[in-house]
Write a structure and sequence with these properties.
By secondary structure, this protein is mostly helical. It has one helix and no strands.
Length: 57
């Protein structure tokens, strides 16, 4: 039974690592988008030209 418990713990560890990785990706993407789409952003190319045909303007 010890071997089975070890395997379950390993599976749980892998699942936790995968979830942590996805959470980190989502968090980084959210922060990057928030910084990129700030109205007063000083990033190069952050602002699109006004009237470029964006329906959600």
């Amino acid at each position: 039974m010890e071997h089975r418990r070890t395997a379950i713990q390993r599976t749980h560890r892998v699942l936790i690592l995968v979830l942590a990785g996805l959470f980190l990706v989502l968090a980084v993407t959210g922060v990057w988008l928030a910084l990129r789409y700030q109205p007063s952003g000083t990033f190069g190319g952050a602002r699109h030209e006004s009237g470029s045909g964006s329906p959600t303007g």
